From TrEMBL:
Residues 1-28 form the signal peptide. Keywords: Signal. This is Tripartite tricarboxylate transporter substrate binding protein. Belongs to the UPF0065 (bug) family. It holds the Pfam family TctC. The keyword Signal applies.
Length: 330
């Protein structure tokens, strides 16, 4: 009986010690998330990145059982919002950022100081979508097609303006690609985001801009703008009447803008895996995909490693394009 009691006391003591041990990473991940999350969009509200982020945030909230708040922190071509997540927020998975090829792969070659290093300070979770850029003309302009524009630009070098979401972003660089391919010179007018530039194209303040396809599909169909060409290797199923630049003799004008979700580097691997699992399930869901695809988004998903590999590849590839454009930012 005494031996039995001793064994029982030893067992109880062992159980008590187990309860006092710190939680393992796996058990900590099981308890995550226990409070609301934030998805930072480093661009103005109302743009194509913001629209997808809000749809993704709503769906992710339902799967995680916690609110996902979208926080627009625009500025410096996406640097401000990304730097805030990369350097000022804890590496706990509660704050995410929607990054793109523009601020993650192009900006390192533009800015002497970005406030963060995309490859060192951020951890990719999954790609979310890609979309081509397109050349957009106002309905009041005389440009019915790209040939009209090229002829006018050759007649008046540097006189025809085109807008973009800002210096050095993909819209601007698509314009540089077109200038080089067509041997013309246009006047670049940078805006603080795509929506105000598009408003000025529709209002006649500027004649042209390069923009993301999803932002202009509805406007083109309503006659509010003319989409003259698609910077892709194939025509858009939503705008089958619009040729690619390659079809028009400018095969070098191709810009597919990818986006994806990242967290601060150092976020525990189980939390990154959980976020990836839930987001991939959302991104592969037909109910989530179809409304976005109907607007011109190509919805994607990936592993964290696939996203990392693409980021490294495009960071190296964009160096030449930025040098060719002769762009530098402070």
């Amino acid at each position: 009986m005494l031996k039995t009691r001793r064994r029982l006391h030893a067992l109880l003591a062992s159980l008590c010690l187990t309860c006092l041990l710190p939680a393992t990473p796996a058990s900590a991940a099981d308890a995550w998330p226990s409070r609301p999350l934030t998805l930072v969009v480093p661009y103005p509200a109302g743009g194509v990145a913001d629209q997808l982020a809000r749809a993704l945030g709503n769906a992710l909230s339902q799967r995680l059982g916690q609110p996902v708040l979208v926080d627009n922190r625009a500025g410096a071509n996406g640097n401000l919002g990304a730097a805030w997540v990369a350097r000022q927020q804890p590496a706990d998975g509660y704050t995410m950022v929607l990054g793109s090829v523009s601020n993650l792969a192009i900006n390192p070659h533009l800015y002497t100081s970005m406030g963060y290093d995309p490859l060192q300070d951020l951890q990719p979770v999954t790609l979310t979508h890609t979309m081509p850029n397109v050349l957009v003309a106002g309905p009041q302009t005389p440009y019915k097609n790209v040939a009209d524009l090229v002829a006018a630009a050759k007649a008046k070098p540097g006189a025809i303006a085109f807008g973009s979401a800002g210096n050095g972003n993909t819209m601007h660089l698509t314009g540089v690609q077109f200038e080089n391919a067509a041997d013309v010179r246009l006047l670049h007018v940078p805006y603080k985001g795509g929506p105000p530039a598009l408003q000025d194209v529709m209002g006649g303040q500027i004649p042209l801009m390069f923009h993301n396809l999803p932002a202009v599909v509805t406007m083109h169909k309503a006659g509010k703008v003319r989409v003259l060409a698609v910077a892709d290797t194939k025509r858009s199923l939503l705008l089958p009447d619009v040729p690619t630049f390659a079809e028009l003799g400018y095969p070098g004008v191709v810009t597919n803008v990818w986006n994806g979700v990242l967290v601060r580097h150092g976020t525990p691997a189980p939390i990154v895996a959980r976020l990836n699992k839930e987001m991939v399930a959302i991104l592969q869901s037909p109910g989530f995909r179809k409304p976005l695809e109907d607007q011109g988004y190509e919805v994607l998903s990936s592993t964290p490693q696939q996203f990392t590999d693409l980021l490294k590849k495009d960071t190296a590839a964009m160096a030449g394009l930025v040098r060719q454009a002769g762009l530098t930012m402070q």
